[in-house]
Amino acid sequence: MELCTQSVAVDHKIITRRSANYHPTIWGDHFLASYAEVISGGNYEGEEKQHEEVKEEVRKILVMAPSKSLQNLELINTIQRLGVAYHFEREIEESLSYCYEEELISHGEDDGCCLHHIALCFRLLRQQGYYVSCDAFRKFTNDQGNYKETLVNNVRGMLSLYEAAQFRVHDEDILDKALNFTVTQLKLILPKLSNSSLAKQISNALKFPIKDGIVRVETRKYISFYEEDESHDQVLLKFAKLDFNILQRLHKKELCDITRWRKELEIVMKALPYARDRVVELYFLSLGVYFEPQYSIARKILTKVLCFASITDDTYDIYGTLDELTLLTDAIERWNIEASEQLPSYMKIIYRALLDVYNEIEKELANENNSFLVNYSISEMKKLLCTFLQEAKWYHGKNLPTMEQYMTNGTRSSTYHLVATTSWLGMGEVATKEAFDWIATEPLILVASGTIARLLNDLETHEVYTYSVF
């Protein structure tokens, strides 16, 4: 990507505009055609019936597993890693609640199996939202507070400790040491392992720990890892494959619907040749937020809103003049169709299409009597565009903000506030008005996430400009 400029005549004035020469979308109508191929053949009713039958078999396995056993913890972990835990939320919660109340993490002798057991229990409980002490890991350290070298012989235990350490919080030095210890040792161990399922899991975990992975991507990988493991459960594996295929068909249908919606916006995109067409990538982002079938409407809503966030980002970053951007920001703040009259023609198209999308969302949510919640997303969209305008003012005025000024503005311009708020639309009873009121107060977790998103985005942008300009 290389920035260039072009001069155009607007109202008898010569205006110099920038262009990033973004690569055009590679997807086209691919997902319209691919979904048509998917539904053209196959006995899907039979597959879904089989899916329900096998699901109940898995439920029985989960319910019958001894509550205090390592077997139960490994079963829960496998179900989660295979991407089917959303079918058994009540059973998993009951089991982990029992583990927490009985303080099972503190049980066991100081042996290799115990490391795997305690680390797995610790991670599963913290994933579930339980705060458990990390003191249980002190039994694996020596008098100097370092982890015992003998632990390296227990490869599975080391991997479990590595994943557990990802859930550390501030001032948990023992987990900081655990992370450094396991990363170093697992990298040394890896070349010595045969091309086994465990070796592949370690290699993948060092790049994508469970906490950081995109669920559906990691699910697909883990199904393959699990199938290669000679001790795998045939019923679990069968259910995971059935569930993955059924969900993938749903996701392809959603992409088909989103692609069709994007084609209906063709007149908008043709008027905005500078803007990136990122609908597929943004759907993938939405899929990373939630993949479960009950959130189908929410995924579509989030994707559509993010498409317009992307278009406006390119408008503020690349194309608009400062005067035009100021007019657009003022019009967005007013949020009514009459406010578009003062805008240049290309901005009128953006503005009216944005209002149309939110009107569609309101109608969609009217069925749930939740259309009023759309105002929370609209409010975040307004605030987002104000941050885009501030960045444009810095650029056009050739002003260099202080780091504090940049990060205060950048935390919101990362789009994270908009994503977090909009992602709750269409989630039904899960997302209450009280939840929206809470997130509107900008809690620390939201601000911190926005800061991380801003810095990661800037690092990526820096790499793109560094390696693409010759």
Structural class by sheet pairing and helices: mainly alpha
Please work out how many helical segments DSSP would assign.
20
Which sheet architecture does the biggest sheet show? 2 strands, antiparallel
Strand adjacency order, main sheet: 1-2
Task: Name the features.
mainly alpha; Farnesyl Diphosphate Synthase; Glycosyltransferase; 2 domains; two-stranded antiparallel ribbon; globular; metal-binding; Terpenoid_cyclase/PrenylTrfase; Terpene_cyclase-like_1_C
Q: Could you explain how this protein is built, in words?
A:
This protein has 470 residues and is mainly alpha-helical. The chain has two domains: 4-22 and 274-468, Farnesyl Diphosphate Synthase (Orthogonal Bundle); 65-232, Glycosyltransferase (Alpha/alpha barrel). The protein is built from 20 helices and two strands. A two-stranded antiparallel sheet has the order 1-2. Helix 5 (112-127) runs parallel beside helix 6 (155-165), helix 6 (155-165) crosses helix 7 (173-189) and helix 12 crosses helix 13 (296-319). The longest helix has 31 residues, at 234-264. The mean pLDDT is 91.
Topology:
Layout: E1 4-10, E2 13-19, H1 30-39, H2 44-64, H3 70-81, H4 89-101, H5 112-127, H6 155-165, H7 173-189, H8 197-207, H9 215-228, H10 234-264, H11 266-270, H12 279-289, H13 296-319, H14 322-334, H15 345-366, H16 374-396, H17 403-413, H18 416-422, H19 433-440, H20 444-468
Antiparallel strand pairs: 1-2
Helix pairs in contact: 1-10, 2-10, 3-5, 5-6, 6-7, 8-9, 9-10, 10-12, 10-13, 12-13, 13-15, 13-16, 14-16, 16-17, 16-18, 17-20
